[in-house]
Structure formats: C-alpha cells, structure tokens
Amino acid sequence: MASTTPPLRNIVLVHGAFTDGSSWYPVISRLQAMGYHVTAVQNPLTSLADDVSATEKVLRRQTGGVLLVGHSWGGAVITQAGGAANVKGLVYLSALAPDSGESVSDLLQTLGAPMEGFTPDADGLIWLDDPARFHQVMAADLPMEKARALAAIQQPIATVGFAAKIRKAAWREKPSWYLRTTQDEALPPAIQQAIAQRIGAKTVSIASSHMSLLSHPDQVARLIDGAAREAAR
C-alpha cells in the first residue's frame, strides 16, 4: 500500500542511556513507510544541557510541526527541549519526565525508586557494557546475540545529568502519550505508571522489556503514528 503524507509529518526520536540513535532503526523504517519524515538525535549523554542542545539543533532543522519522542533518559531531554514552538506533542517510551525545577534524581526519589546498582567510573560515567547485564536490565525479550551487539555499541551516560534540573517542563503545556512496558527491569512498571499519571499522558501498556523500540517496533510505531495524528488536530 502506497504511503501518504501525514498531517504532522516530522518525527524526532531521542534515545536514552546506554544506547544511540541506531536503536531506533526498526521504528524508523516503519514510520518512513507511513510517510513520516524521521530524524534520530545522537545524544552525547554528557549532560542534560548537552543532550537538550543536540535535540534542539535537530528541531531547528524541521519544517513544520514535530512530534517529539523520548525513550528512557530521553524523556528528560524532551521534557526540556519540547518547549520549542514547533513541537506539537510529546511521546514518552518507558521514560522519565521530571517537572519544572526537578531533576531525574529528584523524580525517582519522590516516587520511591532511587537509582541503585550503578557505579560511575573515575570519569563520572556509568557503563552497561556487560552483555549479560545488558540483556537482563534492558532487553530480556531480545535474543542474547542481539544483547551482545547492543552492549558492544552502548554509550555511557554521565552521572551529572541525573542531578540537572528541568527549567520548564514541556508536558505541562503540550499533549503527551506514554508507553508503559510491563516486563521492564530498568524502570519498574509501577514507576512508569506513576510518571504517566503525574503528567496526564494518554497511556498504553505492552508486555515488553525496556527496549520496546527493538523488541516491539510495530506497536511503538503504531503509538507514535496515532499520537502524531492526534497532535495534528
């Protein structure tokens, strides 16, 4: 079936910690087949400000309205960067969504789920480069072979980002959607539900690990497509 140009044609995808923009590939191919113009941001993961800046640069290259999508840590990034005038809606995939004046650490502490089990190295970076641990925490519903490849290309995240406070939360002014992953070992499903309710997002739940964009790309693409159509109204 030939694709048609959707009303809101620009989709900008923001990856989370321990991954890069290539993790969106299965979702990108599906959205492009639907007629969307898709761009995946490459976050340096060196600070919240640096990731927001990388996202804002991509947003400035879009012509027309944008649906901004963030996975995991990328949710904090879109919460700040989503204030751009051309952003018409926000999609959070198993994502963090702090409020104005709140950091990711503050958010998790408030929800009773402080970050545990990760020790930064001498450079202040947190790595997830052990394949078995990557598989367990991020991608239990993907083959171990795929987890090994993901661990090989994982990108460490600087701990300073978790303490940086959001200046102005975009979800307070723009419509939002949330994908809750019920088999998630990285961000507990109950915490995801609390975040989704807190920001007033339209919520969909699927039985997936944290890396739903790789294990359930059809469902992720359908959610993004539906959100883009609603945001264009």
TrEMBL record:
Residue ranges occupied by any AB hydrolase-1 domain in the UniProt entry: 11-222
Superkingdom of source: Bacteria
InterPro entries for this protein: AB_hydrolase_1, AB_hydrolase_fold, Sec-Metab_Biosynth_Hydrolase
Transmembrane segments: none
Protein name as annotated: Pimeloyl-ACP methyl ester carboxylesterase
Organism field: Nitrospirillum iridis
